[in-house]
């Protein structure tokens, strides 16, 4: 049977937007892309190593074309600083980009986020990357 039981316009739209975002972002191919049709949302996990400056820079590159960017960060049980930036992409689709860095690499430049996490801006992440790079 080749006929779909329901239309796939949401999947088609998200797939097209994800393809556009990945194609138009001057960054290495992501290691994970997830589409959530119900939420009209795309999640992207950039590829990359554990270098904090590289990871922060990659987050900023992947989100540089989004509008209305908000961010959060929290510490994981493993001692990582888990960061999510989210904003609106093409066609109003919500795009979330996430990564983590070892908190030890950021220690001395930022205070440990409170339990439950805290908000963070792209400017703060940029400043953190510069501080870490200068301290290396």
Q: Can you tell me about this structure?
A:
With 136 residues, the protein is an alpha+beta fold. The chain has a single domain, classed as Beta Polymerase, domain 2, CATH 3.30.460. It has four helices and six strands. The chain has a six-stranded mixed beta sheet with strand order 1-2-5-4-3-6. Strand 4 and strand 5 form a beta hairpin. The protein is elongated, with a radius of gyration of 16 Å. The model has no long low-confidence stretch (mean pLDDT 91).
| Strand content range | 25-35%
CATH topology: Beta Polymerase, domain 2
**Major sheet description:** 6 strands, mixed
- CATH top level? Alpha Beta
Amount of helix: 25-40%
Uncertain runs with pLDDT below 50, 5 residues or more? none
Mean pLDDT: 91
The number of domains:
1
CATH architecture label: 2-Layer Sandwich
- Span of the ends, CA to CA: 60 Å
Give the SSE string.
HEEHEEEHEH
The tally of strands reads: 6
Shape: elongated
Radius of gyration, taken over Cα atoms and rounded to an integer in Å: 16 Å
Spatial strand sequence of the major β-sheet: 1-2-5-4-3-6
Number of distinct helices: 4
Helix-and-strand structural type: alpha+beta
């Amino acid at each position: 049977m080749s006929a779909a039981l329901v239309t796939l316009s949401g999947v088609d739209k998200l797939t097209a937007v994800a393809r556009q975002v990945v194609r138009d972002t001057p960054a290495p191919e992501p290691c994970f892309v997830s589409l959530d049709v119900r939420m009209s949302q795309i999640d992207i996990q950039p590829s990359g190593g554990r270098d904090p400056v590289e990871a922060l820079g990659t987050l900023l590159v992947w989100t540089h074309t989004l509008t209305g960017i908000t961010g959060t960060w929290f510490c994981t049980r493993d001692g990582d600083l888990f960061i999510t930036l989210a904003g609106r992409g093409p066609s109003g689709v919500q795009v979330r980009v996430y990564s983590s860095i070892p908190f030890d690499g950021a220690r001395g430049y930022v205070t440990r986020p409170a339990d439950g996490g805290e908000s963070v801006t792209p400017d703060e992440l940029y400043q953190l990357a510069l501080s870490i790079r200068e301290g290396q």
